[in-house]
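Incident review: delayed structure delivery

Summary: a single-chain prediction request sat in the queue longer than the usual turnaround. Root cause was a stuck worker, restarted by the on-call engineer. No data loss occurred. The affected request and its eventual output are reproduced below so the record is complete for anyone auditing the incident later.

Affected input:
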Amino acid sequence: MQDEKIIRQEAKQFFDWHIRGSGHHEPIKQFHEIKSRLYDFYSDEFKSVFLDEIQICITDQLLEHRKKAHDGQPNPDCQYEISSENCCFTSDKN
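Output delivered after worker restart:
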């Protein structure tokens, strides 16, 4: 599906420009950035694809952080990890 590929690429660019590079480390500010971008998509399916790719990007960045900062292990006291997990709305601390 060509549309899905385009949307996933848009999500990756959005993540790089507005989440990773924004300086907003508070999950609520990241959430509002994402929420405002969702208005650009018409269908629920496209919104879902966009959100799925954003979650993949956040998870990948979190795993990269853990490898560099904590020898690949989660650190429940790390503010970076807490913010990333809150932004993904995950309760899994793996």
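Verification: Residues 90-94 have pLDDT under 50 and may be disordered.
Action items: add queue-age alerting; document worker restart procedure.
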